[in-house]
Design a protein that fits this description.
By secondary structure, the protein is an alpha+beta fold. Helix content is about 25%, strand content about 35%.
């Protein structure tokens, strides 16, 4: 899966202001206070990761020790492995039924 707006989900911990883009407004010197991260911010990858890390854990996944972007859940339904790289997500399951139940659980959230 490819998440096109991946960095827009990160919540900023500190106040970040940006000037309006050229040609956008008539008033010069107006600033916007950002509530969420944007591509290009130095804080964007870290805030995105913090936001992303809480969701798989809420679904019962544990993060692997060797790679913190790989999450595993093993239960009576089967094994599911989720790998995340920047804005790409790979999901693997031990069987199609497990994957279908996981997909249904995601759509209910």
């Amino acid at each position: 899966m490819d998440v096109k707006t991946a960095f827009l989900y990160g919540v900023l911990d500190e106040d970040v202001y940006m000037e309006l883009p050229e040609g956008y407004g008539l008033v010069k010197g107006v600033m916007w206070k950002l509530l969420r991260s944007l591509y290009g911010l130095k804080q964007a990858p870290r805030s995105r990761y913090r936001q992303l890390d809480t969701y798989p854990r809420s679904l019962g996944f544990t993060r692997t020790i060797s790679d913190h972007s790989v999450y595993i859940r093993q239960d009576e339904e089967g094994l599911i492995i989720v790998g995340v790289y920047v804005d790409d997500v790979t999901i693997a399951a031990s069987n199609l039924d497990t994957l279908a139940r996981f997909k249904k659980a995601l759509s209910l959230k």
